[in-house]
Each structure stands twice: as structure tokens, then as C-alpha cells.
Amino acid sequence: MRAAAALLSLVACSGLLAPLAPPGLGRRAAQSSDRLNQLPLLVPSRRPRPRCPNNSRCSCKADGLDLADDAHAAADEAAAARPPAAAAAAASDAVAPGVLSLFDSRSLNLLVVLGFVGFLVYNFCTIDLTVWRGWTATEIVLRLFPDNWRGYEEALSSDPVLTKTSINAGIYIVADWLSQFLNNRGGDDAADGGGGILEFDLRRVLRNGLIGACFGPVVHAYYEWSDVVLPLDGLGTTAFNRPLKILMDQTLYASVKYSMYFAAVTTMDGGSAQDALDTVKAKLWPAMRTGWKFWPAVHCLTYTVIPARHRVLWVNCADLIWVTILSLLSQEAAGAEAAAREE
Q1: What is the model's pTM?
Q2: Span 104-109, average pLDDT
Q3: Sign of CA dihedral 55, 60, 64, 67
């Protein structure tokens, strides 16, 4: 498990650092090439020279050259000149991005997906590794789901914050990948053969996972606090507090969470504090109105049949459905806008 986690961390760090490779890499290679070109040649040049148009009056025949005075000066300058550093740098830089693009496109995305999925599959399949000695393959498979759920329950009891934070980060990663996949599949790239499962912005996915990890303790603290402020442990208070909890979720909590998310995304993209504030002002109200069409129905289940310790997991699963809906709606809106422009 530790080896898989180390591999996943290494691949993730490579995804963050590879796109930041120094743009002068090609120029340094070109300078090295220039220094090699300045070394004395061991093999004489066999480049054919143009014949002199007036051999009888050529003043350079004494040098063994068959060129007229003016023609010889231009040809000799062109033959002696080495490729300029700027041209060599441009040629090298034209190759370097192609090499570096290997690390921030499909190949690196494939490594990250394999590492992430492999890490999850390994931990899921080896939940009983220490006790399955003597078990048959059928017994191991039949115990996977119940024992993994039992392990999740034990983790919730021993370290609820870390457990919910890990799940929150993982769900944010999957949700952002799903959003990109759906948007790419419905966009112009789909017609060009794009939109596959490896066509995603790795930095954006990792950024979203980091935001999800930061939100994990906040979400845990909010649900703990809401149960203290508006408890659901009595017949008289439950019927009165349940709609208040949903109202508080979709006003106070949603506004703060959406604002923090929009500000964090803008800041991580290199925006200033003013840019983050402008983004929050532009996107908060539309996000709130759209959320009111989905989350109140979800929270009717959150505060009725879902146990308190599993509410974060339930809401995270609902986030996946929510992201799918938003992506489909954005595709429909983009298609309608394109059709309106064509008309």
C-alpha cells in the first residue's frame, strides 16, 4: 500500500511540474549544438561549388577557386557561415515542446489514471490480506464488499476527519474528471476524435482534488455543528428542525461553500484577490439558483434515512450526479447559443 501511495504521489507531482518545464531548455540545447559546430572538422567538405562564369579573368583562381570576384565573396560567406543561434534555438524549441507535451497529455494522464485506479483496486482487493490465509478464491471475493464497508466504518470511528477528507478529495477528483469528459464529448473535439477518457486537464483535476481535501474538514465540522444547532433526535424537534436544516444548507452553507470554491479556483489559476471577488459576484447567484433545483430533494433523504456519520459520503455521491447534470446542461446551453449565432 505504501509503495502504491508513493507511486501515485510521484506521478501526481510529475503532472504538476512537467508543464512548468523551463522554456529555455531548447535554447540551451542549441547553444551546445553551436559549440559543437565550432570544433574543427576532421573530414573535408565535399560540397560542390558553382563554376566561375569567367574563368579567364577570375582573380581568385590563385586560391584554387572557380568563382568570379563578386560570386565568390557571396558563396564563400554562405559556405563558411554556421546556422545562427537564433535559428538553431527556434528549431530546437520546435522539438522540445513536442517532447515535453508527452508529459502533460495522454501519456501522463494514462499513468495517473492507472496509478489512481491501481491504488484503489489494490486497497479494495487486499482488505483481508492479513487474515485470508487458507481461504478459497470464492471466499475472498465474497468478503470484499462487506469487509471493505466494515473497514470504512472502523475508519469513521477511529479518525472521522481524515476519512471524510480522503473521500471528499477523491470524489472531487472524479467529479472534475467526469465534468471534463462530458464537456469534451459534447464539444468540438468529439468530432475530431477527441473527448476520450484520457483527454482531460491534469492540473485542473489535481487542483480540484486539493480543494476537495481542504473542504473535507469544513464539511465534517458543518454537519457536526448543524446537528448541535438543529438536532434531529426528538419527535417534537425533528419535524420542525428538518426543513430548517435544509433551508440553512441551501442558504448559509451553500453560499459560503460556493464562494470559497470559486475564490479558490480563481486564485489557483493565478488571479488576484479582486479577480476572485469578481468571480464570486458573477457566479454565486446563478449557482445558488441552479442548486435549488436539485439539492433540496437530496437533503430530504440526507436528514431522514441517511445516518449522520454517512452524510458526507452521501452528499459526495450526490455531487457526482450534480456534476453530470451541470455538464449536460452546459452542453445544451452551448448548443443553443451556437444555433442562435448561426441563425
Answers
A1: 0.64
A2: 79
A3: negative
